[in-house]
Amino acid sequence: MEILVCVKRAPDTSENEIQLAAAGGDIERDDLVYSVNEPDNYAVEEALQIVARTGGSVTVATVGGEEDEEVLRREMAMGANRGVLISDDGFTGSDGRGTAAILKSFVETGRYDLILTGVQAEDGCAQVGGMLAAMLDYPFASLVTSIEVLQNGKLKIAREIEGGSKEINHIDLPCVLSIQTGINEPRYVGMRGIRQIASVPIPTLGASDLGMDGGAAGRAAAKVRRVDYFTPPEGKGAKILTGSREEIVDQVMELLKAEGGLN
Amino acid sequence: MGNGFDSIAQSSYWLIQGRDLFLFLHLLGTVCFLYIVARRLRPLLAAQRDFRFDRPLARLGRVAQYWLAQWRHPRYRLAGAIHILIFAGFLILAARAFTLLAMGVSDRFAGEASGGWYAAVRAYASTVVFLCMVVAAIRRLAFRPARYPRSADAIFLLGLIALLMAADAVFEAAGGAFYARQGREMGREAPLSLIWACQNLFASLPPASLRGLRLGAYLAHELTFFFLLCYRPFGIQFHVETSLFSIYFAKLERERLKPVRWGMPDDAIDKLDSLGVKKLEDFTWKHILDFYSCADCGRCADQCPANAAGRPLAPRALTAKARDYVFGHYPVFGRPADGQSFIGGVFSEDEIWSCTTCGACEAECPLLVEYIDKIVDLRRGLVDDGKAPQALHKPLKSLESRGNPFGKLEKKRADWARGAARVVNGNRVETLYFADSITSYDDRMQSIGRAAAGILGRLGEDFGILGPAERDSGHDVRRYGEETLFMALRDHNMEAIRASGARRIVTADPHAYNALKHDYSGAPPVEHISQVAARAVRTGWLRLNPVDGGVYTYHDPCYLGRHNGVYDDPRDVLDSIPGLRRVEMKRCRDRSFCCGGGGLALFYEPPERERMGVLRVRMAAEAGANVIVTACPFCMANLEDAIKSAGLEGQMTAIDLAELVERQMVS
User: Fewer CB atoms near the end CB (10 Å): N or C, chain A?
Assistant: First the structure.
């Protein structure tokens, strides 16, 4: 089975102190370290496991700039066979729909039986997968927690639904699935693996390679614009504790005692 | 010799002449033994290279100490004493065994009569060995020390050795009794020896019976001898043959962790197809020899803190399972077994990750079996296959991108100092204080860093810290199998250290100490803060105020004590504090009990019955202490946690040696 996994580079939430930029409208990006959007690792791992069972190959693609090549290399070090960087000055400022349109054009340049995305980007809106499926006129399932390949060009998939229950579906190939975290345990990517892949060339495709006209993506085509970032104001009944860690812990203990939460 | 009684070679066994029978038996036995040994050598030849042929004198010294002088055996008193007696007996009886063999094929050796000092010595030696077999069997059957596996094989082997001793005694005694009856005095048998006892027993037997008994005993001795020789390579008694080689080829620099491949340059590691141990043959030949040499004594597992805490790891079992695997896959007879996978089958992943590399097993093993190198190589294999435990992915990733396992910002790495130390930042300093990650970022451990810096300041040292330019020492990154990441961290630190121009490094973190000292090459000399403080106390530079009350005990951090031999400095510092009452825990110094492990061990929780730290603080309570002094931030993290989990809060406290010294400094 030929599988495409769409991945994204995102600030790693566990290694950054996310702060709002003074000017508003964005977060402070100077000291951020970026990595593969964590949920995407589950999608790539799932693709690798499917290929290990049924044969085929895994391609990872991302829409971005030169700096995004590192996430492709990381996923290739995991075991993906090919990486493709989709990059064009005209793509800058795309909204989710624009990104989906770019990916759609890319998908049409190849033959993929299955397209996977992470459940959502840690700095995104969980929207590209669904839109991509719609644009391709492929079936789509979100929050997928298991995949079994059936004989007749179908997949049997489980989806997470409310309350932790699961529903089981059959879905026709080709299709787009967004993969829930926890579906598997993504393998560890060591530094040696990344270094071994460092010299493998990664093709870059631009708008003309994809046969895209100017109007489908980019800032001009974007219909969603981010206006502001803000921390929520202190609501009614909320109390922000300040001080050193010990002082905060003491205050919490006092509050819990005072409110009857502790005896 | 008159009636031919003396000659085994000329006597007849069921119409076959003794010489022919024994020539055949000896040849058959020897050929079988050589064949079996050759088969056992095959996996060693298929294994990885391991250069252990240098420095013969140092190696012979090891042989003299650990093999000939049985150095580590008395650490377990009774078992050790029994073993030393058996070992000495075997050495003494070796010449006798060869004389006996020769006697079967040639009369030239038959004349070796009883009498003379060697005869008396060997008479007692065989008696002692015989009695040791009885005592050992009783121990195994009746008292069943927990560290021994229940093994019928062990009893069988004890029986065979006892039989060997008894056969020799009967052989000798029958001869003695025969001559005594003929009125020929052959010299007095050593009183109370096995021979003496047998001779008294046989005194009234007719000559014909004595002759039969003697021939029968000789045959039984030879059969037992060769059966044992050929049977030993199938089980734990193979160590009788292999221990000499295991000790001769034992690693000389035990503090040095095995590199990925001995002698391989760093940049070649990227080009290897595979890294670490994924199949049996990925071990080095010496490691496979270790599997043969292990005598299943279980001292390693008895000392292993992971085993004590109920983790799925016992060093003895690790070896025993590997040995069974070798025997199955390189059989002496028949086809190699297949089936069970090596990793995941023979060794479970949890087992491989359960080790804290504390080194208690290696400090105990009488045969110098190496465990840490094997564990680290197994981990390298797992990491290379992407099988690092999920809990370690984030810390490892953070170490790669931020240089610390917590994912904290590099620019905040010097925040702990709060004026107690200045960042080098391009200036040159005499002494560099290396904080390492946990001391830099953990709220609690930062106080250890400030205390150490306070001591250096008080001593008037010209010192600085690398601050944001420092990265994790990578000590445990390496021990958890991520060699390439370790090399990146090391290279970064080495560059920063060189740029600082420091001529000496001081640290309060034994893991950083061990890394800088043994894993980095070319770093300036490193000292632990306890060594600095001990020197200052001894020379009178540093005077400490008295303490009021409290019973103190010192917990040896593995990487300060066992791995680097720093036992006395911290104790000397404590003892220089007036009024401080110090007690030792039962397990101290090179038998110290690991707190639960440092570095990445903080992030990984293997299945366990109890936390090692909890066991450790109970030991401190048992010793009557209410203050545990340690000298390692990881020990502090684990022990403080354990005091709470053990419900000893309010009765027991933990303090770092540096903190204690800083608190008590005379101002």
Answer: C
Nearest residue of A to residue B271, measured between CA atoms: A196
List the domain range (segments joined by +) for residue A144: 2-216
Q: Which of B269, B392, B402 comes nearest A15 by C-beta?
A: B402
Domain boundaries, chain B: 15-45+54-248, 268-384, 390-534, 542-664
Q: Which residues of A touch B402 (CB under 8 A)?
A: 15, 33
Pick one of 3.90.190.10, 3.40.50.10700, 1.10.540.10, 3.40.50.720 as the CATH number of B542-664: 3.40.50.10700
Contact B530, B510 (CB under 8 A): no
Provide ipTM, 2 decimals.
Answer: 0.89
Q: Is B492 on the interface with A (CB under 8 A)?
A: no
Considering the domain B390-534 in this protein, what is its CATH number?
3.40.50
What's the pLDDT at B2? 39
- pLDDT under 70 in chain A at which residues? 263
d(CA B442, CA B424): 21
Predicted confidence at residue B112, as pLDDT, reads: 52
pLDDT per residue over B150-172, tens digit each?
Answer: 888 889 999 999 999 999 999 98
Interface test with B, best of A192, A200, A244, A248 (most B CBs within 10 A): A192
Name the fold adopted by B268-384.
Fumarate Reductase Iron-sulfur Protein; Chain B, domain 2 (1.10.1060)
Are A190 and B392 a contacting pair at CB < 8 A? Answer: no
Same domain, A200 and A241: no
The minimum CA-CA distance between A11 and chain B, rounded to whole Å, is: 12
Say yes or no: A176 and A244 in one domain: no
**R_g (Cα) of chain B, nearest Å:** 30
Which of these, A71, A89, A91, A72, lies nearest to A81 by C-alpha position?
Answer: A72
Tell me, what's the pLDDT at B184?
Answer: 67
- The arithmetic mean of pLDDT across residues B321-336, rounded, is 92
Residue B113 binned pLDDT confidence (cut-offs 50, 70, 90): low
Question: How distant is the Cα of A83 from the closest Cα of chain B, in angstroms?
Answer: 19
Co-location of A48 and A118 in the same domain = yes
- Residue of A79, A61, A76 whose CA lies nearest to A9: A61
Residue of B nearest to A32 (CA): B409
Same-domain pairing of A181 and A253: no
Candidates A16, A17, A188; nearest CB to B386: A188
Q: Which of A:77-116 have CB within 8 Å of B?
A: 78-79
Task: Quote the percentage of chain B above a pLDDT of 70.
Answer: 97
Q: From the DSSP assignment, how many helices (H) and strands (E) are in chain B?
A: 26, 10
Does residue A113 share a domain with residue A243? no
Task: Find chain A residues with C-beta within 8 A of B396's C-beta.
Answer: 188
pLDDT band at B3 (very low <50, low <70, confident <90, very high): very low
Same domain for A34 and A135, yes or no, is: yes
CB-CB: which of B383, B407, B443 is closest to A245?
B443
* Strand extents, DSSP E, A26-184: 34-36, 57-63, 82-86, 114-118, 140-149, 154-160, 166-172, 175-179
pLDDT at position B188: 64
Q: What is the mean pLDDT of residues B10-14?
A: 81
Residues A188 and A253 in one domain: no
| Contacts with B270 (C-beta within 8 Å, 6 or more apart), sequence order | A192, A195, A196, B484
- Tell me whether residues A14 and B387 touch, CB distance under 8 A: no
Interatomic CA distance for residues B158 and B163, integer angstroms: 9
Mean predicted confidence (pLDDT) in B595-610: 94
Q: Is the CB of B402 less than 8 angstroms away from the CB of A33?
A: yes
- Please list every residue in chain B whose beta carbon sits closer than 8 Å to the beta carbon of residue A79: 386
Q: Which of B384, B388, B394 sits opposite A14 (nearest CB)?
A: B394
User: B339-389 pLDDT, tens per residue?
Assistant: 778 898 899 999 999 999 999 999 999 999 999 999 999 999 999 999 999
Q: Does A191 contact B269 at a Cβ distance shorter than 8 Å?
A: no
Residue B392, chain A, CB below 8 Å: the answer is yes
Q: Could you give the CA distance from residue B349 to residue B326 in angstroms, rounded to a whole number?
A: 19
What is the pLDDT averaged over residues B302-319? 96
Closest CA in chain A for residue B392:
A188
pTM: 0.93
- Looking at residue B146, what is its pLDDT? 87
**What pLDDT, on the 0 to 100 scale, is given for residue B120?**
87
Q: Do B397 and A15 touch (CB under 8 A)?
A: yes
- Residue A127 tokens read as 């929207």
